[in-house]
Automatic annotation (TrEMBL):
<dbReference type="GO" id="GO:0016887">
    <property type="term" value="F:ATP hydrolysis activity"/>
</dbReference>
<feature type="domain" description="ArsA/GET3 Anion-transporting ATPase-like">
    <location>
        <begin position="21"/>
        <end position="286"/>
    </location>
</feature>
<dbReference type="InterPro" id="IPR025723">
    <property type="entry name" value="ArsA/GET3_ATPase-like"/>
</dbReference>
<dbReference type="InterPro" id="IPR027417">
    <property type="entry name" value="P-loop_NTPase"/>
</dbReference>
<dbReference type="GO" id="GO:0005524">
    <property type="term" value="F:ATP binding"/>
</dbReference>
<protein>
    <submittedName>
        <fullName>Arsenite efflux ATP-binding protein ArsA</fullName>
    </submittedName>
</protein>
<dbReference type="Pfam" id="PF02374">
    <property type="entry name" value="ArsA_ATPase"/>
</dbReference>
<keyword id="KW-0547">Nucleotide-binding</keyword>
<keyword id="KW-0067">ATP-binding</keyword>
<dbReference type="InterPro" id="IPR016300">
    <property type="entry name" value="ATPase_ArsA/GET3"/>
</dbReference>
């Protein structure tokens, strides 16, 4: 057996309190609690004195209710009952953010023509990578405004967490690709598209069908041409922001093989791209409640024939110890491959998070304020 891996604890409060930390990006695979983690971190930062805003992506309605808001919008709204700092919350509206970007870089007449085009309406709502790009566009807007001490970003629920980092370049590459450039040339450009790779292009815009497709696409590109320089510059600025010392990535995972495998891919990608990783938030862990091994608990339970309730409790404890040990093995495997990554274990909370107190509790657990006993491999 390999020696036990030493796991460095992640100091969340130090990260949130650091005035040089301006952006915290929570990322990871779907279903691991990124949105709740993001909101809880923003609540904790505000209650530690910072003016924080959380940008959420497609949150459950109960999260807005937990923040005391009837609904979340594309612009920040103040959350009451949090202090001494301030907490604001918002939800990405992908289409509206795209519209705002076009309006910022085009004359009113040109912007109206672009937004009325069927091709634009397709890519602004359903093109692969649009949501991820618009999340970063909105982040850029929040940073440029200079109003916030801390911006916490919940990344989109992509099929792969890596899509979030690839999206700005993918959108830029698509709009700067050969087929799009051919469409910007009248007449002969369209004929060239028909002759060269038309089927691939058609697949990318499959929601637009029939002979009108090329006409709409050509009109869109010609109208968008004056806007594209600003669009590309924003994508490049986004990447510079993500790499800056004021940004910190938190990879969120659950103690399950698939989630930790995705977390490992993401950690590797962040390292390869030179982006600042703060650590891993491991949600929904199951710490043991007493320093009693599973084998000992089961042995005692077998002897308690006259006390079925006590025996049942001991067997439940034994099952919990086994589950905690399994989670520790999975985490040890991750940290063995990524020894420099600090980890915050977050004990599971039963039920939905229904209010600010629930988010505060999650924040306390992320910050390590809840004891987290783990089983000893050498326990009898």
């Amino acid at each position: 057996m390999s020696p036990q891996t030493t796991i460095e604890p992640l100091d969340i409060d130090a990260l949130l309190d650091d005035p040089t930390t301006k952006v915290v990006v929570c990322c990871g695979s779907g279903g691991v609690g990124k949105t709740t983690t993001s909101a809880a971190l923003a609540v904790r930062a505000a209650e530690r004195g910072r003016r924080a805003v959380v940008l959420t992506i497609d949150p459950a309605r109960r999260l807005a209710q937990a923040l005391g808001l009837a609904r979340l919008a594309n612009e920040p709204r103040r959350v009451e009952g949090v202090g001494p700092g301030e907490l604001w919350a918002m939800m990405l509206d992908m289409r509206r953010t795209f519209d705002e970007m076009v309006q910022a870089h085009a004359t009113p007449e040109r912007a109206a023509a672009i937004m009325a085009n069927p091709f634009y309406q397709t890519i602004s709502t359903s093109f692969s990578g649009t949501q991820e790009y618009m999340a970063m566009e909105k982040l850029g807007q929040l940073v440029a405004g200079g109003e916030w001490d801390l911006i916490v970003v919940d990344t989109p629920p992509s099929r792969s967490a890596l899509d979030f980092l690839d999206a700005p370049q993918r959108m830029s590459t698509f709009l700067d690709g050969r087929m799009i450039r051919l469409l910007s040339a009248p007449g002969r450009g369209i004929m060239k598209v028909v002759g060269v790779g038309f089927s691939l292009f058609a697949k990318a815009v499959s929601t637009i069908i029939g002979g009108q497709m090329l006409t709409d696409a050509s009109a869109f590109v010609q109208a968008f041409e004056s806007v594209f320089g600003g669009f590309r510059e924003r994508a490049e600025a986004t990447y510079r922001l993500l790499r800056s010392p004021g940004t910190a990535f938190l990879v969120v995972a659950a103690p399950e093989p698939d989630a930790l495998r995705e977390a490992a891919y993401f950690v590797d990608r962040l390292s390869a791209d030179g982006m600042p990783l703060a650590g891993l938030v491991l949600n929904r862990t199951h710490p043991v409640l007493a320093d009693l091994s599973a084998a000992k608990a089961r042995a005692v339970a077998d002897e308690l024939r006259g006390s079925p309730l006590a025996a049942a409790v001991l067997r439940l404890h034994a099952d919990r110890v086994d589950l905690a040990a399994r989670e520790e093995r999975l985490l040890a495997r991750f940290t063995h491959a990524h020894p420099g990554v600090a980890v915050a274990r977050v004990p599971v909370v039963e039920g939905d998070i229904a209010d600010l107190d629930g988010l505060r509790e999650i924040g306390e657990r992320i910050a390590g304020q809840v004891p987290h006993l783990v089983p000893h491999a050498s326990s009898p």
